[in-house]
Amino acid sequence: MRFKDQFQFVRKNMKKNKTRIFMTVLATAMGCAFLIVLASVGFGLQKSIVEEITQDRLMTEIQVHGKEMNGEEGINGITMEDIDYFESVDHVKTVTRRQQVEQQGDFRLGEYRTEGTPVVVDYPSETKAGFELSEGRLPESDDEVVIGYDFANSLAKWNGEEPPPLNEDGTVKEGNAYDGELIGKTLDMKVMKYEDGEEKSKIFQLKVVGVGKKPTREWMRDQNVFISEKVLADIEAFTGTPNGMVVTPDIPEEHRPSLENREERVYNQVAIFADDTENVKAISEELKEKNYFTYSVVNEMEQINLVFLIVKSGLIFIGTIAILIASIGIYNTMTMAVTERAPDIGIMKAIGANPSTIKRIFLIESSYIGLLGALFGTIVAYLITFVVNWALPIILSNAFGEPIPGDFKFSHIPWILPLICVSICLIVTIISGHRPAKRATKVDVLKAMRREV
Q1: Which of 223, 298, 423, 445 is the 20 to 30 A CA-CA neighbour of 241?
Q2: What is the rounded distance in angstroms from the CA atom of residue 278 to the CA atom of residue 274?
Q3: Is the pLDDT of residue 226 over 70?
Q4: Within a 13 Å sphere around the CA of 70, how many CA atoms are in the beta-carbon half?
Q5: Where in the sequence is the domain holding 39, given as residue range(s)?
Q6: Under 8 Å between Cβ of 123 and 139
């Protein structure tokens, strides 16, 4: 008996008991839908969290925060000697370093003013790492600067004495904001220091030649002003302190930092960029052996993925219980099928049908029920997922008054999840149908013809 004939025989018999088969398929579909939807929550949260973490970061970036001091407690800062070593490590594409001026910059353009953070950057390494401009060009001389994307929006008509004209969210009040072009304009940057107990200041003139790219996240604001090493050196020469630090009169003389005591420059932000994501872990491990403190998104992803692997495995296990419960219905359906088809089984045995063929027919039927249940369950699960991702953010936003990010997914079904569900369902249904199928091979021909099974 060919497989095609066996399959046609199964379908013909299943049509005789449509209601019972329908209820069995429905129970299996409910179990599969429950498994997929339950596990999809774990996949959805993982997808949303991972995307949130990696949204504004490069996967090839390794941040270096310092180096453990040999035999002593404390952390050494990153110097140019360390950066030279980083650049010599295999598979390192570039190393960026940034140094902030250690006082808030007071920037003015005519009657407009704002506060920003002066930051020294190395443009060649920044460009290799992906630093981009929204307009303008990179500086070509020491007095030229690039401003952050939100710097222009922070300029306001303000005399510096009365409260700044700002709204509660930090934006400039209407009628006080600067609405002109900044590229080509010269900013006055005021730097201060204390000398003999009195406050003194100096103005540094900086020409704007470029504007940085808009931050990837809406809540981020970039008001930095990217200055040159020469400007920082001039600021240090004026203040007499490393990085332009302001030393107030109440600080004892012996505790005051000075340029004479500084051996070499220590950078605030140092980042290593690997030539490929696959090499990030190897570079991080090499730096760790050298006692450097590092952080990379790839390492964080490994920990997050491990946690979610455990969560997803637990959810799939719980969902599998629903399919196991549905398997009871399959077992009952197949047992009744053997009883009802005893005459057919007797005839098949009487004309010489192999017991393995009879057994295969019932296993095909139980597998067919399982496949139908898995198929319908998967379709229902996708519909539920669509409704959840569309409706739940609206409900939660109205209930708690907090907006939910539009790209946040509460449920996500990757292709592997239905595949796992179908595999589990097939295994369970075959096991459920195995005993009734085995029983069918032991039916006595004479009793079967008298319907005495």
Answers
A1: 223
A2: 9
A3: yes
A4: 1
A5: 3-55+303-449
A6: yes
